Amino acid sequence: LRSSSCGVRLSALRRPSSSSPSSPSRVSRRSRASSTRAGLDADSMNSLMALLMGDKSALVTKEKALPGRASKMEVPEKHFVTGNTMEQPFPSNLEHCVFGSGCFWGSEKAAWRMPGVWSSSVGYAGGFTPNPTYEEVCSGQTGHTEVYQVVWDPEIVGFADILRIFWQSHDPTQGMRQGNDSGTQYRSAIFPATPEQHKLVLASKEAYQGALSKAGFGAITTEIGEPGATEYYFAEGYHQQYLAKPGSRPYCSAQPTGVAMPEYAGGECKLPEKYFEKYGPRPGCTIGFPNEQVKMDELK
Q1: Which of 198 and 287 is assigned the larger pLDDT?
Q2: What is the pLDDT of residues 234-282, one digit of tens each?
Q3: DSSP state of 61
Q4: Integer CA distances (angstroms), 36 to 53, 107, 152, in order
Q5: Considering only CA atoms, which of 277, 269, 283, 266 is closest in space to residue 299?
């Protein structure tokens, strides 16, 4: 048995279709009441899955985690959309950071579309198992969460821009799930690469918590790693830029709250407000946009 969320996504990968699929169920998070009802439904499912498979809402210990392997995952040399490299070393003028906000397919798409992003990729981080497979991560026995790495040019797009998209593209109060996807592998997380990033992550979290609390949401459960302390493992090649590839199915369970990121010290964005108004996440959907990267000329 697999969890319903992993089963849905593996099924989609086995049977790609070029036809227009129906959209997955979209649940609004505009009100705390609707969020609570969804939480109760998810909790009931979690209880059932726990009886069948063990408690997937609890992180596995290092001693019980799967052993993994020494060999690294092979990934395409070039990004499917930007055409740039996905593996280090990157050009010295670029910065990078790793994020987790539920299913990594839609999260990565939101990242690669941003002007100034050099490349993106999806993978696993935050756990114990070296070089895990997708199936191993889905089992909940690696400790990893699904993540995406963003590589960007800070002269064009700022870390504050990327953080704003991250916070607003999912519900960071849901603990060990995101929308329909349940388990420790779907927890919200940020793994900063530098002390400067770490500082801004904490400031942005505090600001967004204030906005969420005013809107009736609970405490942010996002895991925040220490600077440069978390190893990033690439996911399989077929997961990379999955939603941009022919025959892919537009699945994404992220649940944007509709709550905007307020102003905070250091959080000044480089992209114009028009970008967030036109291309920012909306409640119920994060992937209903073209695959191409947005050009700065479009924002004038």
Answers
A1: 198
A2: 999 999 999 999 999 888 888 999 999 999 999 999 999 999 999 999 8
A3: P
A4: 25, 23, 36
A5: 277
Helices 159-168, 195-214: inter-axial angle, 10-degree rounding: 40
Which position among 97, 103, 138, 252 bears the catalytic label?
A: 103
For the purposes of burial, counting CB atoms within 10 Å of the CB of 277, is it exposed (0-12), middle (13-18) or buried (19 or more)? exposed
DSSP 8-class letter at 131: S
Q: Are 57 and 183 in contact (CB under 8 A)?
A: yes
Q: How many CB atoms lie within 10 A of CB 15?
A: 9
Alpha helices per DSSP H over the chain: 4-14, 32-53, 104-112, 134-138, 159-168, 195-214, 273-279
Judge whether 103 counts as a catalytic residue: yes
Which pTM does this prediction carry?
0.84
User: Per-residue pLDDT tens for 138-163?
Assistant: 999 999 999 999 999 999 999 999 99
Burial-class residue 83 by CB neighbours within 10 Å (0-12, 13-18, 19+). Answer: exposed
